[in-house]
Specification:
Shape: globular
Strand order of the largest sheet: 1-2-3
Number of strands: 3
Number of domains: 1
Order of helices and strands: HEEEH
Helix content: 10-25%
Oligomer: single chain
Largest sheet: 3 strands, antiparallel
Structural class: alpha+beta
Distance between the termini: 13 Å
Radius of gyration: 11 Å
Length: 67
Amino acid sequence: MSTYCSFCGGEAATGDHDRCRARLSLIDPPRYCPECARRMVVQVDPMGWTARCSRHGETTSASRAQR
């Protein structure tokens, strides 16, 4: 389980993140690293998105869809 919400950057264990999960499941890419809450560099193109954390690497829409 993630330590931080990848949409708002808040702690995953506290607060209500239902709206965040809904946004992430529809179309929005993650904005914050779920491991360290650092703001990620996000690139969106017509084929999907790429989000990169300077410490934990890259996540893509293709890799997220496989989960």
